[in-house]
């Protein structure tokens, strides 16, 4: 009989995520997937399994859980307070969760998104070749207390493995490349953009994150004449009030705001994991 994990108490923004569903942008559906895909690869390394195995993404805080069989788990992403039956356990590590034991995951100490991985992954029904919830598209939903999640077959392996804390937590430098409208911003504006220390606004979710800064906003001469075109996660749109907005994994497929640059994929988790008020500075490469 397959194992299952019961959600005793769900946090406010908990979803199932894998590496997403590429190939559907022409149909109006963006890639989606984990806000911090690096965390999925870390979990896969700790459990010795495919990084596309579905995991629980927990925004801000976790919840409490109980398994009906002994299972292997791993914890990655934003470090959260965690214990099994009241005994603290390590983050960025793999563990054995005994049947009937209570796993409790609290609030994030750093970062924004924590991940709970299980041996074999969560075996929910795939939609368009992915198990990821895509809330903006109406695929899946926030998980609720009382739900019972089926687990895939675990091929087994070691536990009590650990990984060092990655440099994406607390990092301030975010590397970007030129985008479609970068040249529409004059040299002085581009220089001011890279010299500015931004603060991640509290208004951020899986669609995008607003960047706050002191001083005047950023603009191009043709701000209002740009035709809507394809956009992608990592694009930095300059909105009507001159504030940069970094598009994230569930961004829309088209947009009409000018883009001053695009965050490279391996640095986008820095933005995803930045807490409100965290300092970020962009650098063209």
TrEMBL record:
What Gene Ontology molecular function terms does this protein carry? ATP binding; hydrolase activity
Q: Which InterPro entries match?
A: CT_A_B, Cyclophilin-like_dom_sf, PxpC
Keywords linked to the UniProt accession: ATP-binding, Hydrolase, Nucleotide-binding
Domain Carboxyltransferase, chain residue ranges per copy: 26-285
Q: What is this protein called?
A: Carboxyltransferase domain-containing protein
Organism of origin is: marine sediment metagenome
């Amino acid at each position: 009989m397959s194992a299952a994990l019961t959600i005793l108490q769900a946090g406010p923004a908990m979803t199932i995520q894998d590496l997403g569903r590429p190939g559907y942008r022409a149909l109006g559906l963006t890639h989606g997937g984990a806000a911090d895909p690096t965390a999925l690869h870390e979990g896969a390394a700790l459990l010795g399994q495919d990084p596309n195995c579905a995991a629980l993404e927990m925004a801000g805080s976790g919840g409490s859980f109980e398994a009906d069989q002994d299972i292997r788990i791993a914890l990655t992403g934003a470090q959260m307070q965690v214990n099994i039956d009241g005994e603290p356990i390590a983050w960025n590590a793999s563990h054995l969760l005994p049947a009937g034991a209570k796993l409790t995951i609290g609030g994030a100490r750093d970062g924004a998104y924590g991940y709970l991985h299980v041996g074999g992954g969560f075996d929910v029904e795939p939609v368009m070749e992915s198990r990821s919830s895509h809330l903006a598209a109406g695929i899946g939903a926030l998980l609720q207390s009382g739900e019972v999640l089926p687990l895939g077959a675990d091929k087994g392996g070691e536990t009590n493995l650990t990984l060092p804390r990655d440099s994406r937590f607390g990092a301030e430098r975010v590397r970007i490349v030129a985008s479609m409208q970068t040249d529409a911003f004059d040299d002085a504006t581009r220089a001011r953009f890279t010299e500015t220390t931004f603060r991640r606004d509290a208004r951020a979710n899986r669609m995008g994150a607003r960047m706050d800064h002191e001083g005047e906003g950023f603009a191009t001469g043709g701000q209002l004449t740009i035709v809507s075109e394809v956009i992608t996660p990592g694009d930095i749109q300059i909105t009507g009030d001159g504030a940069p907005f970094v598009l994230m994994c569930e961004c829309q497929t088209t947009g009409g705001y000018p883009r001053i640059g695009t965050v490279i994929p391996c640095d986008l988790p820095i933005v995803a994991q930045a807490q409100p008020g965290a300092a970020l500075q962009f650098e063209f490469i």
